[in-house]
Structure formats: C-alpha cells, structure tokens
Amino acid sequence: MEKPLVTPHLIIREITLADDQFILKLLNMPSWLKFIGDRNIHTVTDARRYIRTGPLRSYEENGFGAWVVVSKATLRPAGMCGFFKRAYLDVPDLGFAFLPEYEGKGYAREAVTACLDYARTSLGLQSLLAITLPHNDRCISLLERTGFRFLKTIAPQNDESLSLYELKQLF
Fold first, then answer.
1. Of the candidates 81, 78, 77, which has an alpha carbon nearest to the alpha carbon of residue 65?
2. Is residue 168 part of a domain?
3. What is the CATH number of the domain that holds 60?
4. How far apart are CA 114 and CA 117, in angstroms?
5. Which residues, 6 or more positions from 171, have their beta carbon under 8 angstroms from its beta carbon?
6. How far apart are the C-alpha atoms of 149 and 129, rounded to whole Å?
7. Number of domains in the chain
8. What is the pLDDT of residues 67-93, one digit of tens each?
C-alpha cells in the first residue's frame, strides 16, 4: 500500500515494527484466542517476529497483507484488517480483528469496505474468500453485510472445521 487508506473515522496503514505493543495486545485478547487461535505471541520480541514473518513478508511477496486500522478520534490502533494468502486457498482471504474498546462502533465494517475497495481499484483482485469458525456470529454477519456468501465448510490440514465465504464480484 503506497499510502494509507483514509475513511471518515479511520486510517488504514501498513504495520511496522513500532506496532509491536499493539500486536501483542491484539493477538492475546480473548476474542482473538477464541475465534482465531493462539499464535504464541507472548512478548514484544514475539510480536516483532510475527510482524516480520507475517505482514511485512506478505507485503513483499504478495503486495498486500494485514494492515493496522487507526482510529482518527484517538490516533491509536483500533484493529487489523487486510488480506492473507494461505497455502490451502486459491485466492486471498479477508481477515479482521478489533480491540474490544473499538467493537460495536462500525469500525470493522468501515475498514472492510475500504479494504474491499482497495482490492478492486489497486490490487485488481477478481474475487476474495473469508474463513471463520461456524459459531463466530459477529464475523459472519459482517461478511454477509459486505457481500460475502457462504460457500462450504472446510477443514484445512484436518484442523477444526471452518466456514468458507466467497465474494465473487469485486468489479
């Protein structure tokens, strides 16, 4: 992303190593652990490694990745939103997570909408996927409100079953 995405309430920008404290907090909040899983990020050093091997590597290899969503009101990171390229999926998938104090304010939908627009206009993606646990009702609701439709249940690498959603027409 050459420059941050700016929406009425948010600034969406690339993650940097300076976001290590935020990443440590986000990846250890109860809803992340429940719906996304433990990434074994327990120290600032772990968070910096995650940033290097996850988002920064994805920017370099794919031209996209997870981005920090900053609240314009507080100028603090509120969450993360972006695209992931997983070995078990044919096309990138959308992912997002927000700190509890920023949930229920419409920020996730605003961030997802901005990222989908960026996928259309700058990345040239034809379609997107999204994965979630079948009981993550808030995630499913947001996916459906932004145009995603349930495709099927998958179990990558014999892990827990996931619901796979698809957004076919980005253009």
1. 81
2. no
3. 3.40.630.30
4. 5
5. 120, 126
6. 9
7. 1
8. 999 999 999 999 999 999 999 999 999
Q: Grade residue 171 by pLDDT with cuts at 50, 70 and 90.
A: low
Is 110 part of a structural domain of the chain?
yes
The reply to whether 38 falls in a domain is: yes
pTM (2 d.p.)? 0.93
């229920």: which residue's tokens? 104
Residue 39 phi, psi dihedral angles, 5° rounding: -100, 10
Instruction: Name the more confident of 133 and 156.
Output: 133
Tokens 């892990």, located at residue? 159
Residue at 39: amino acid letter = R
**Pick from 137, 138, 63, 135: which is nearest to 108 by CA?**
138
Q: What is the pLDDT of residue 16?
A: 97
